[in-house]
C-alpha cells in the first residue's frame, strides 16, 4: 500500500515536471485585430512557451505556403497590408530534426473603408441641434471618429475639410451633435485607429439645409416659386460677399450636381435648361459661404 502511494506520488511529480518543461509554439499579432484594412500594419510574434535556445529558427506560413522562411527575430512587422494578405497564418519552429507548429490566426484584410455619414434632421428649425452619424462598413475594434466642416473650393469644384471643435482627438462614439445650427452647411467624417493613426477615407459630404437668408450668401429664384414647369425658364441667382459663385443641387437618393450638369452658369446666375431635375438648390461662394437652400420641383407641362 505504501509502495503504491509512493509510486503514484512520484508519477504525479514527474507529470508536473514534464508539463513545466513542455514547450508549445505560440503565434500572436499586434494589434490584436483579425479584421484589418489596406494600408494598415500588423506585427507577427512567434514564441515558444517555457523559453527557447538560440539554435531555434522559425518560418511563418500563409495558407500552408512559405511566407517568411528561416527568421531568427521574435517579431516581424508587415507594412501596408492589401487584401492579398488575407489568410491563415502559422509559425513553424525548427531545431535540427525537431519542428513545432503554432496555433493559426486568420487575417481578413479589406479595402480601406469609406464611412457613410448621415445627418438628422436635414432641414432643422433655426437654432436646433443636428446629429451626425458616421457608420463604417465591416465595423471592427479600435475606431475613433473625426468630424469636419466642408468648405467650398470653387477652383477644384470640391471641398476642403476643417475639423470641428471637440473632434481634434477623435470621439469614441460614432455620433456627434451640433448645437445651434442656423445656416446651410456641409459636413464629412472619417474614422481612425492605431498608433500612428490609420485613417479611413473621408465620407461623402452631407448637407444640412436652411431656408433662412444669409447676408453673406443668398439664393433667389426667378420666377419666385418652389414649383416650376419645364417650358418656363428658371434662373437661380447668387448674391453676397463674393465675386465668384457656383450653384449646387442635391437629388435623391444621393446625387450631388453642379450647374453645368443641368444648366448654364453666367456670372452669378444659373439658368436651368433641362427640365427633368427636382431637388434642393443652393449657392456656394469662393469665400466658403453657403446660401439659403430652396427645394424646387420641376413638373412637365403638356
Automatic annotation (TrEMBL):
GO-annotated cellular components: external side of plasma membrane
Molecular-function annotations in GO: transmembrane signaling receptor activity
UniProt signal peptide: 1-22
Keywords for this protein: Disulfide bond, Signal
Keyword set includes Disulfide bond: yes
Residues of the Ig-like domain: 113-191
InterPro entries: Ig-like_dom, Ig-like_dom_sf, Ig-like_fold, Ig_Fc_receptor, Ig_sub
Gene Ontology process terms (BP): cell surface receptor signaling pathway; immune response
Coiled coil: none
Name used for this protein in its record: Uncharacterized protein LOC117533740
Species name: Gymnodraco acuticeps (Antarctic dragonfish)
Recorded name of the encoding gene: LOC117533740
